[in-house]
Amino acid sequence: MRAGRGGDPAVTVPEAEFRSYYGQPVLKPPVWHEPHMPVYLYLGGLSGASSVVAAAARFSGHDRLAFAARMTAFAGAGLGSGLLVAELGRPERFLNMLRVFKVTSPMSVGSWTLAVHGGLTAAGAASALTGLLPLAGDAAVMASALTGPVMATYTGVLLADTAVPAWHAARREMPFLFAGSALASAGAAGMLTTPRAEAAPARVAAALGAVMETTAAAIIERRLGLEGEPYHQGRAGLLIKASRALTLAGGLLATVAGRSRTLTAMSGLAITAGALCTRFGMLAAGKASALDPKYTVVPQRDRATGRRLVAVPDQEGGPDTP
């Protein structure tokens, strides 16, 4: 603390209280509804990762798993599209999003990916169910394996590309979190819908996805400072904790799930429940961080202060004292 004139100590400025103008948040909270958007985020990731599992199973000769993954990919894309349209309110709003394609817009890329991916999974499922045009069906599955990773991760990029503090601060890890969760979900679905003798690739996918999701979540918790608080508090905190416990338990059980149906069911259901808790928890954390102005004001003030310390020297040539 510097001395004032005459040797009197300078007056210390108290910490400011973070209040918004007329009690309004600095940011408008996300208007997405539950359960529409969280379940859509889950189904989109499930569909995308299941397409990759279907292609890998087709190549490796696991035909029962390939068939089940095809059906899962189609069901996820179809049901997810329905939930998205319900969230938008009118079907023509989704069609309006396809009028323009912008590589720099996650929403535009995601809309086109959903449309193309949904068509490919429908073609693959129709061929598998009817037995018609098997080569065309396999080609559709292979093509959907290319759109699948985008389908599984674009929603994470979409959240991170907003101004919502809790989401934007985790922009580096969010795509990996969603990719791991999607892979684990696809593995869980394969385990639950395929005989244990042919479900080994699904168990591997479930375990690897659980490790990837858990690792990304741990990095988020360690790296984020103030902006990470909403992930540990209130309803969001409970959902995130449940997600971590369920995903970790399901991933561990997947390594031994081939021994019995009971272990298979426990692993698959735990991973599925964990993936849903992740989506609901992410949405709740984002809303909480947008409603509280400190998650917007404090990080911006700290970043601005840091820039001044580097860029504005005092008269003696050293860094300016705050």
Automatic annotation (TrEMBL):
Origin superkingdom: Bacteria
InterPro entries referenced in this protein's UniProt entry, alphabetically: NrfD_2 (IPR032796)
Protein name: Polysulfide reductase
Source organism of this protein record: Planotetraspora silvatica
Keywords: Membrane, Transmembrane, Transmembrane helix
Transmembrane region(s): 39-59, 65-88, 109-133, 139-164, 176-194
